[in-house]
Write a structure and sequence with these properties.
CATH topology: Rossmann fold
Order of helices and strands: EHHEEEHEEEEEHEHEH
Mean pLDDT: 91
Number of helices: 6
Shape: globular
Number of domains: 1
Oligomer: single chain
Low-confidence stretches: none
Number of strands: 11
CATH class: Alpha Beta
Radius of gyration: 18 Å
Helix content: 25-40%
Distance between the termini: 36 Å
CATH architecture: 3-Layer(aba) Sandwich
Structural class: alpha/beta
């Protein structure tokens, strides 16, 4: 298990745990659910990209001019449609100049395997920092497939952000993409049900974000 978790970071923080609790609560409405997903994504981005590349630029402040750091790395946020869209705004608030790609996947309810229907990323961006976002890493099939599509197109610098992850999902992504860094807000050491959902999580994130329960 230690080898599997090598590139996995669990963000154990009381404020994140507090927000995860509200996400999992069945009484949390669409508006609040959507806002909390965005808030957690922003908190995760703050922690996950401590090592992002920067460069110094000279700025003119009110009292003097001096060199100060700015981000020096192209960032592409790639939500897995549609649930991943809920995490985009929180990350864009950290990276206002980020580009946004889209990866459309749906899960076959019988085989539980991901099927693709849409894929678009910014051109000439394979050297960028790609942030794949998906609220729940349950079976891991969709996240692993999305990462695979990016790797097929030459993208190498890929990070996955998920709000809740199961051992099954983590093992799936790590085994198929060992170089990808994974950041998880909450680790749910619980089984999956017959539909592939984490039983101690928030259900279908897309339905709860968009009010289509």
């Amino acid at each position: 298990m230690e080898k599997i978790m090598k590139n996995v970071t669990i963000l154990n923080h009381p404020l994140i745990d507090h927000k995860i609790t509200h996400l999992c609560d069945v009484t949390t409405g669409t508006k609040e659910f959507r806002e909390i997903v965005s808030e957690i994504a922003m908190l995760m981005g703050y922690e996950a990209f401590r090592q992002i590349k920067t460069k110094n630029v000279t700025i003119q402040a009110p009292l003097s001019s001096f060199p100060s750091p700015v981000v020096d790395e192209e960032v592409v946020i790639c939500p897995i449609l549609r649930a991943g869209l809920g995490m985009v705004d929180g990350l864009v608030s950290l990276f206002p100049n980020a580009k946004v790609g889209h990866i459309g996947l749906y899960r076959d309810e019988e085989t539980l395997k991901p099927q693709t229907y849409y894929f678009k990323i910014p051109p000439r961006s394979t050297d960028a920092q790609f942030i794949v976002v998906d609220p729940a890493l349950a079976t891991g099939g969709s996240a692993s497939a999305a990462i695979g599509f990016l790797e097929e197109r030459g993208c190498k610098n890929i990070t996955l952000l998920s709000l809740i992850a199961s051992p099954v999902g983590i093992e799936k992504v790590v085994s198929e993409h060992p170089d990808v860094k994974i950041f998880v807000a909450h680790y749910a050491d619980a089984p999956l049900n017959e539909k592939g959902y984490i039983v101690t999580a928030f259900g279908d994130a897309g339905d709860r974000i968009f009010g289509t329960l």
